[in-house]
Amino acid sequence: MSVLAHEVTHYQEHHIWWLVLWQSIITVVLFSIFHLIYPALYEFAGFAHLHDIAAFPLFVLIFTVISFLLNPVGAAISRYFERRADHGALELNRDPETFISVMAQFCNRQLSVAYPHPIIEWYKYSHPSPGNRIKFAEKWRDARQDA
Fold first, then answer.
1. What would the pLDDT profile of 62-100 be if each residue is shown by its tens digit?
2. Which of 94, 130, 92 is nearest to 9 (CA)?
3. Is the dihedral of CA 30, 61, 78, 138 positive or negative?
4. Helices H, strands E: what count in the chain?
């Protein structure tokens, strides 16, 4: 039920459409940056024409570097929506113990790291780490018990 409630929250809050929008914006930014810098880089690399097929590796290199630099933006947006869905799952289901159990099972079955280094989570993770999701559910539970 916790997983279903999480997915229902994604649906209710239109997260897929928001992610499509954000990814589109990031893609436009990626191409805009490329458009600004590629003439100078192609000229520096000695290519006379932008359509020269020999310049394709340079094209790939530039896009790889820009994508590497923009990756944290997409990951942060995705984590935000995942956190919203986790909150929605807790609100809909009102069973934080099951949610915590599911997160622990995901961690154990997938042999994932519960608490990765914060920089790795910031840069790479599209979802909050299992440990942080468990902490979030515990805080949610404790806030409900105090109220």
1. 889 988 998 999 999 999 999 999 999 999 999 999 999
2. 92
3. negative
4. 6, 0
H or E element: which one contains 65? Answer: helix 56-93
Q: Can you read off the two tokens belonging to residue 124?
A: 């790479």
Provide the whole-model pTM: 0.84
Residues contacting residue 88 through CB under 8 Å, at least 6 positions apart? 5, 6, 8, 9, 12, 13
**Host H or E run for residue 16:** helix 15-44
Q: Which residue has the tokens 């006379």?
A: 48
The domain total for the chain is 1
pLDDT tens digits, 1-21: 999 999 999 999 999 999 999
Parent domain of 35: 2-146
Amino acid identity at 19: L
